[in-house]
Design brief:
It is a single chain. The protein has about 100 residues and is mainly alpha-helical. The relative contact order is 0.07.
Length: about 100
Amino acid sequence: MSQVREIKCPHCGEWTLWNGGIDDRCLYCSGFLEPQRFSREVEIKVNRELLKENDYLFIKPTDGAFTRWYKSSLNSLRWTVYYVQIAFFLFATCLLVLLSLMAV
């Protein structure tokens, strides 16, 4: 359930309804009610897309069928190795904790 509250518009100074969303606009002047928050969210989204596009294994629409398969296979392998490493370190940590408790 969303609560509807009132907030004073930073542009026109009128009190207007506000749902708490980043893209809520004033009912009188159509200005953003939280312009700093909105611009920050847009900046984060753009930076995330740029990082994804600059990735070496990013699958582009111009890639051929073999290149798409190759990149998706390498991405899957990369994530599998990442999670296996995490599982190994968790196992080693638990083993060391158990051994240290048994030595006491």
